[in-house]
Every structure is written in structure tokens, then in C-alpha cells.
Write a structure and sequence with these properties.
The chain is mostly beta strands. Helices cover 11% and strands 36% of the residues. The longest helix has 31 residues, at 2-32. Keywords: Apoplast, Copper, Glycoprotein, Lignin degradation, Metal-binding, Oxidoreductase, Repeat, Secreted, Signal.
Length: 578
């Protein structure tokens, strides 16, 4: 008996020992985790671009806004004070917000807006994410100027899965109107027509050498001969996918949307609005000045777009100084044609997760969502001035033929949490109400969607697959679809109509990339999967802001699980009221 007790005691002792070790390791990792406090003052600031000064809405007077730097595991506490004349919210794009949906930020989805003169403190922890995310206003078109980088370094004591770069530089690609962007979208809403396109693209807030009154402020990124640096590229443009390239230099892609990827080499990037890409660049060219440039990938046939090019300069420290009075222009990169879908596709389909991943296999919710534009007939009694879309219509957009309408008296999360009736319904269709040739010639009878605030309910822990399918209604184009509160695996993408019999063979179930924004190909489809492990109300929408304005969105309700750690936290006391 004694021997028996001894034989039990020994494994128990070692179990206890490892348990204590684990506790210490967790405590150490928690002790390393920091809380970062920031104040964001939303205010009107004079900003001069393209020879004209505009009263732009900014954070702390900065355009682009401040870069926030944290480590994986850290907590952010950001007090936002609204001193501008517009309602505002801030969205932390790509942050999982586990159980903290109240801090996600989309207006009337997870909170009521912060009114002029009001304030709200966003509190959330970064869990298991490393790389580049960003933050932006999620109210009307304010994100045109209210945005900045969110850099997540590896956990204290750990390192990148690639050699540590000498320098790290956020590269924020933006879009500038020589006008007030709020006036631009208000005019479009009044007329029913498409809004005016932007007048410039920017890199870190500056248009660059190819625009009037701009070359004195062009962004300069420094590099030393032989060093390898990390560029954290973010597409913060409002309405445009962008190609990005640096003359005579290649990129090694190492991350996207705060997930590491299998490194691959490319000379051009394509990012949809909302997407981020981390690339290594090595100073291996003759010391000189080289342009980095971005311009549109415009996939919608016949639709107007801003066809200008923004530049910054990659400058070698040892670059020879030109003789007095001699101007040597930097070398210019070759960029793809505006409609080069082949290059865009080759890039997006190169992504793989850094290692083998556990993809959800037994699917509980098999969903099929069409995404695309539409036209509403002119309402009875409306003047022709309010129906200036094609042939006297008004532009609209929808998912599964439902054009999403934001509530105005409560946020959806509040209504869900408090059981307030009449704010939304839970009958968003799991599949298109009518099956049709999505990418062919679509009957005009399908061009006008219904409007509504329809949500789709998911049980906690449900394994979800969604076929995101573009349509050829009005015009087909590439749609960057972003899901709040989640990352998802992109299993495959393709052109034409999705065929469940043959296209499932293309699914990557080994190492698909983990993203928060999927570029759904023009006249094509993407298939995504995720596990519904984060309770709350989460909007999924096109990240071309003109399309979300028109209703290209829907939202999921994810129910609480069983334990407290599977339930939404209680709302903060300073949550704004409508």
C-alpha cells in the first residue's frame, strides 16, 4: 500500500510542480503586459493640401493621426473627446475585442455616437494578435481624415518569426478631397448619384511630387545600404483599392491584418481599403532616391475613379548630393494598369498562413451572401433632383438583396443586450432569396433591393462558412468585405459563379491566410470560415465607404456561451446615449 501511495505521489508532485511553473509563467506574462493610456481630441484643424486650406477633422490636430504602439497582450485605454461639430466614433480595425464589443466603435452598431462636446473611453486588450492594424472614425465619412496606425509588437520576451528589421515605418495610404468629405457624401445622399471622386491619394498624409503645391512636404522614408527594414502598409483610403510599389526594390511579404504569413516576394502590393500588409525591404540598390508610389486598382467598368498617383521617397543615407542647382528626380516604379485584375489576383492568392492551422471543418452554418450594387426607382412624389442616378434612379447596395439601414435611437448591441423590441429583426436570409446568374446579365427585376435592419443569429461556438459572392448588378467590382470582431480563414477565391460541386476542391484547408478583410474578386467569389467565439453584435460590410453608405452591410448577433468568459461584458458606465 505504501509503495502504491508513493507511486501516486510522484506524478502528483510533478503535476503540482508544472502547475506552479505554469502559474508563474502566466503571471510573468501578465506582469509584462502594460496598460497604455491615450487621449484623442477630435477637432477641426486647418490642413493645407493641393494649394487650399480646409478645416479638416483630425485627432489631436494631426493628419494622419497618431500611431499607437503596443505589445501583444497589452491593454489600451483611449479617452475620445469630441470637440468637432459632427458626431463621431472610433473603430479599432481588426482588433478581436473578445467580450468587449462595446469598444468596437461602429456608429449605431455597438454604440451611439459621441455627440459634439461629449466623450467616451474605449478599453480593450490585444489578445494573440501581432503585426499591423489601424484605427479610424466609423461615422459618416469622417475616416477620410480621422485615422492612424495601430502597431502590435510581439509579446515581451518573444520576437518576430523573421530577422529583426533595423527600422519600422507605417505607410498609410489615404485619399484626399479638395472639399469637405462630409459635404461630398451629403450631396450624393441628396441627389441619389455617386459621390464625387477624390482629388488625390496620400502617403502618410502627403500627396507627393506629382500634385500641385505638394512637393515641399513629400514623405521621405530613410534606408541605409545593406539594411532590411519593415514597412507596415495600410490602405486607409475611403473608396479605392490601391497598387503600391517601390522603384527597383522587391518586397518580402511577412504579415497581413496582424497575422504572420508564409513569406513571399513581390514587386507590387494590392490592398483593399481596411487591409494591412507587412513587408520587408532591403537597401540593396545603388544609393540614390527612389519613388514609392500608389495608384488605383479600379475594377468597376465605366465607373469614374481618381486616376492620380501619390508618391513618397525611399532615400538612401549615402545618396550622392546633386550639384548645386541640379534637380535629379527619383527613379519611378512601374505600376500595373488601373484595371489589371490579373496582377491583383496573383497577389491576393499568394497568401498562406505561416504554419499549418486548424480550419473549422464540420460546418454548423453554411451561408451564401451576394454583395453588390443596385438602383432604387425614384420614390413617388420625389423631385428629379433627388434621383440623379442612372436613368432617374438612386444608387443603392445590398447583401442578399437587403439594403442595410442603421437604427437611430439605440445601438444594435444595446437593443440586443437590453432586449429592446422594434430596433431590428433577426431574419437576414442565409442564402439569396432568389437564385440567379450572379455574374451574368442580371434581370432588371432584381436590381432594386428591399431595405431593413435585418440581423443573422449565431450560437456561441458555431462553425461558420460564408460564400461571399459578387454580382453584376449595375456594375461588377472588387469588394473589400470586412467582418468586425473576428478574423477568418480565406479558403479560396475565384471568378464566375461559385459551383459547390467543383469549387470546394480548391479549398485550402491546410494553411489558408487569416484576415479581417477579404477582397471579393470582380465578378467572382471568396469563401471564408470562422468560429463564432466572440459574443456581441458584429457588422460585416464593404469597406468602400460609398457602398456602406448605400447599404452594403449586414450584422451578426453572436449569443453568449455558457460561462462568464464566454459572455459579453457589461456596458461601460460612460457609454454614449443616442
Amino acid at each position: 500500500m505504501e509503495a502504491f501511495n508513493m507511486s501516486i505521489a510522484s506524478p502528483l508532485r510533478s503535476l503540482l510542480f508544472y502547475g506552479i511553473l505554469l502559474l508563474f509563467a502566466n503571471a510573468a506574462s501578465l506582469a509584462n503586459a502594460k496598460v497604455h493610456y491615450h487621449d484623442f481630441v477630435i477637432q477641426a484643424t486647418p490642413v493645407k493640401r493641393l494649394c487650399n486650406t480646409h478645416s479638416a477633422i483630425t485627432v489631436n490636430g494631426q493628419f494622419a493621426g497618431p500611431t499607437l504602439e503596443v505589445n501583444n497582450g497589452d491593454t489600451l485605454v483611449v479617452k475620445v473627446v469630441n470637440k468637432a461639430q459632427y458626431n463621431v466614433t472610433i473603430h479599432w480595425h481588426g482588433v478581436r475585442q473578445m467580450r468587449t464589443a462595446w469598444a468596437d466603435g461602429p456608429e449605431f452598431i455597438t454604440q451611439c455616437p459621441i455627440r459634439p462636446g461629449g466623450s467616451y473611453t474605449y478599453r480593450f486588450t490585444i489578445q494573440g494578435q501581432e503585426g499591423t492594424l489601424w484605427w479610424h472614425a466609423h461615422s459618416s465619412w469622417l475616416r477620410a481624415t480621422v485615422y492612424g496606425a495601430l502597431v502590435i509588437h510581439p509579446k515581451e520576451g518573444t520576437s518576430y518569426p523573421f530577422p529583426k528589421p533595423v527600422r519600422e515605418t507605417p505607410i498609410l495610404l489615404g485619399e484626399w478631397w479638395d472639399a469637405n468629405p462630409i459635404d461630398v457624401i451629403r450631396q450624393a445622399t441628396r441627389t441619389g448619384a455617386a459621390p464625387n471622386v477624390s482629388d488625390a491619394y496620400t502617403i502618410n498624409g502627403q500627396p507627393g511630387d506629382l500634385y500641385k503645391c505638394s512637393s515641399q512636404d513629400t514623405t521621405i522614408v530613410h534606408v541605409d545600404l545593406g539594411e532590411t527594414n519593415l514597412l507596415r502598409v495600410i490602405n486607409a483610403a475611403l473608396n479605392q483599392q490601391l497598387f503600391f510599389s517601390v522603384a527597383n526594390h522587391k518586397f518580402t511579404v511577412v504579415g497581413a491584418d496582424a497575422s504572420y504569413v508564409k513569406p513571399f516576394t513581390t514587386s507590387v502590393l494590392m490592398l483593399g481599403p481596411g487591409q494591412t500588409t507587412d513587408v520587408l525591404i532591403t537597401g540593396n540598390q545603388p544609393p540614390a532616391r527612389y519613388y514609392m508610389a500608389a495608384r488605383a486598382y479600379a475594377s468597376a467598368q465605366g465607373a469614374p475613379f481618381d486616376n492620380t498617383t501619390t508618391t513618397a521617397i525611399l532615400q538612401y543615407k549615402a545618396a550622392p548630393c546633386p550639384a548645386k542647382g541640379v534637380k535629379i528626380n527619383p527613379t519611378f516604379p512601374s505600376l500595373p494598369a488601373f484595371n489589371d485584375t490579373a496582377t491583383a489576383t496573383a497577389f491576393t492568392s499568394s497568401f498562406r498562413s505561416a504554419k499549418k492551422v486548424e480550419v473549422p471543418t464540420e460546418i454548423d452554418e453554411n451561408l451564401f451572401f451576394t454583395v453588390g450594387l443596385g438602383l432604387n426607382n425614384c420614390p413617388a412624389g420625389a423631385s428629379s433632383s433627388s434621383c440623379q442616378g442612372p436613368n432617374g434612379t438612386r444608387f443603392t447596395a445590398s447583401m442578399n438583396n437587403v439594403s442595410f439601414v442603421l437604427p437611430s435611437n439605440f445601438s444594435l448591441l444595446q437593443a440586443h443586450h437590453q432586449g429592446i423590441p422594434g430596433v431590428f429583426s433577426t431574419d437576414f436570409p442565409a442564402v439569396p432569396p432568389v437564385k440567379f446568374d450572379y455574374t451574368g446579365n442580371v434581370s432588371r427585376s432584381l436590381w432594386q433591393p428591399i431595405s431593413g435592419t435585418k440581423l443573422y443569429k449565431l450560437n456561441y461556438g458555431a462553425k461558420v462558412q460564408i460564400v461571399l459572392h459578387g454580382t453584376n448588378i449595375v456594375t461588377a467590382e472588387n469588394h473589400p468585405i470586412h467582418l468586425h470582431g473576428y478574423d477568418f480563414y480565406i479558403l479560396a477565391e475565384g471568378f464566375g459563379n461559385f459551383n459547390p460541386q467543383t469549387d470546394t476542391a480548391k479549398f485550402n484547408l491546410v494553411d489558408p491566410p487569416l484576415r479581417n478583410t477579404a477582397s471579393v474578386p470582380v465578378n467572382g467569389w471568396s469563401v471564408i470560415r470562422f468560429v463564432a467565439d466572440n459574443p456581441g453584435v458584429w457588422i460585416m460590410h464593404c469597406h468602400l465607404d460609398v457602398h456602406i453608405t448605400w447599404g452594403l452591410a449586414m450584422a451578426f448577433i453572436v449569443e453568449n456561451g455558457v460561462t462568464e468568459l464566454e459572455a459579453l461584458e457589461e456596458p461601460p458606465v460612460d457609454l454614449p446615449i443616442c
